[in-house]
Design a protein that fits this description.
The protein is elongated, with a radius of gyration of 27 Å. It has two domains: 280 residues, no CATH class; 159 residues, Alpha-Beta Plaits (2-Layer Sandwich), CATH 3.30.70. The chain is built from 21 helices and ten strands. The chain has a two-stranded antiparallel sheet. A two-stranded antiparallel ribbon has the order 2-3. Helix 6 packs across helix 10. By secondary structure, the protein is of the alpha+beta class. Strand 8 and strand 9 form a beta hairpin.
Amino acid sequence: MKFRHLRTIRIIISLLLLIISTFLFLDFNDFFSTEFISGFFYLQFIPSVLNFITTFSIAASGFIIVIITIVLFGRVYCSTICPLGILQDVIIYLSNKIRKRKFVFLKARNFLRYSIMIASVGLAVFGSMVLINLLDPYSNFGRIVSNLIRPVYYGVNNLLAGIFESFNNYYFFTVEVKDSDLLTIIFTAIFLVTLIFLASTRGRIFCNTICPLGSLMGLISKISIFKIKIDEKACISCRKCEFVCKAGCIDTKNKTIDFSRCINCFDCFSACNLNGISYKLSLKESKKNNSELSDKSRRKIISGATLGLLGLPFILKAKSGILPEKLTKVVEQKTTQVCPPGSNGLNHFTEFCIACQLCVSNCPTKVLQPSFLEYGLKGIMQPKMDFYTSFCNFECVKCSEICPTGAILPIELENKKLTQIGIAHFIKENCIVYTENTDCGACSEHCPTKAVDMIPYGNNLRIPEVDSEICIGCGACEYACPTKPYKAIFVDGNALHLKIEKTKQKSSGKKVDYKEEFPF
């Protein structure tokens, strides 16, 4: 068949994009530059829209290219570019290897699909990204790789590193695996199992019923210039094309195709051996089809679906430190979450972040960790600065360079060093200098601006003192503090990021090696 090559081309491109997308969330060797990462995700629709809104830059207009492509050729984005869509195709392929199944024409669930789309857009307009965060395909793919695959990938790497080192071969090196939020892992696992069930039993039903982006692209694709056509004269209604249509949009009985749900996977071309299907310029038709445009129910808003239950993968834990003799009793009073430099503050960050966790995967120190409800329901699963896990590298702006939505705006390194994302607070009653009458100074030693200074305390001891005017809230002091379960020094976030004066910064006289095991 003359159109079969379209399916082959689509498979090659989509698999290549899926492999690279996955690797970009797993890479800990900085194999690709931040420019490549940012450019690779240029065409991801929702991140591009949000980035354009925040920057008004033509360099962030990848979504316009996607819209033009859909108008020309239909929903090729869903079959070739969307990583979650490609992942569903892989699931469908593997499930067919286990148990061969035939897809059939499904009636469009217009009320549900358009209600979810309108609710998602409506909440986003009023400042809540909750539905976008939960349902955006790019964000969900990022969470699946970051929360479920990455710990396993790191664990296998560490296992190989141990084996190779026993033979004096250091091709692999050990990577520290940081703690992840348990609820975020559980939620991601639930989503993945639900996706596997839906894809293996109902094909691309997630894309055509639940995904708000899929519904939006479905509306645009109805006016696409090139469309898949069924030749009524050549078609014998053998249903071969219908049986392989994972979108469930081919009605061989009436010889029609629901273009709002067709994802242009081109599987139907390979199934038909009678030239009954072609890809050509669309013409106005008077035939009755499965048009959703007349469906009045799309203007109603309803609730989303409830997901099932699932287990979670094993996670390796590796963090060294000094365990004081006494446990601390005074709880840190944190009032505001700390968000990354470049995000300007909580409102901007939670408004534009889609919780894709690309920054989590690429953060060199892994201080960015998945959250669950730390930002409230509005910011569900958006990344948080976890200073129990790590610290923000004074010499790093990588998250601002790769953020696809503009939630973390590009920031120059010198500007980042003067950006106060939070302020450290000292609790003397938790400090081992006070509780155990012994020296420490770990917080001061690792403070890059010397906002934490050691002052005379008594018995030839010294105790920390915080200069809030030059503290930038990087969390190095909190991470270095060895006290448990509560820290003697902690960072409380600034709802709106501030600037400190460079002239007031102090120099430690030595450069901290952040690649060295930290802090002890």
